[in-house]
Amino acid sequence: MSNYTPADREPARTDAQAKGRLLGVLNRSLSTVSREAVWFITPRGAGVFAAFTNPTSIPLRTAAPTLYLRSTLEYSYVDDMRFESPERKASTHYYAHTVGESDALKPQLYSWEWASAEPIYPHLHLRRADPEFHGLGKLHIPTGRVFYEDVLRFLIQEHGVEPAREDWDEVLRTSFRRVSSFASWGGGRRS
After folding, report:
1. pTM tops 0.85, yes or no
2. Mind listing the pLDDT tens digit for each residue in 52-67?
3. Does the CA dihedral 137-91-43-18 come out positive or negative?
4. What's the angle, vertex CA 139, arms to CA 69 and CA 108, rounded to 5?
5. Could you give the CA distance from residue 171 to residue 137 in angstroms, rounded to a whole number?
């Protein structure tokens, strides 16, 4: 059962339209925590693209200490055959959403990661490169798929990151619904 509504779908007949749809959702989600940062996309070769945030490490407004977020995606455009006429969508090969207390992200507080080329499940690293935690960051703690919107909601609700817009909750709900409606895996729950 699909969890999209017709209003959530913008048909993408071309890769350029799929790129526009992806950037629109990513930037709208990002606007919940930053007014200055944006996502951009660059080709990697062989039909694979990378999406990064600019700046690479985004300072987040918190009481203290300042937190920084870095997110990256790798994906390719594929046909989405669920609809009467083929549409194009982004198919994720890799994601990493990393939070740290410095713009260098060292030590990392959290890093949610997944790569289709690795024989390991989507996972979380805690306190990576933090000598006080004696190897905790090397553990691959299973998570299931973690959507970008989930990370942003976690930072706002659990870390007290100041939202950059008043309608942040609705923006993240709408973005999650749109992204998960196109997800091939791990998209069946409600945010």
Report:
1. yes
2. 999 999 999 998 778 9
3. negative
4. 25
5. 32
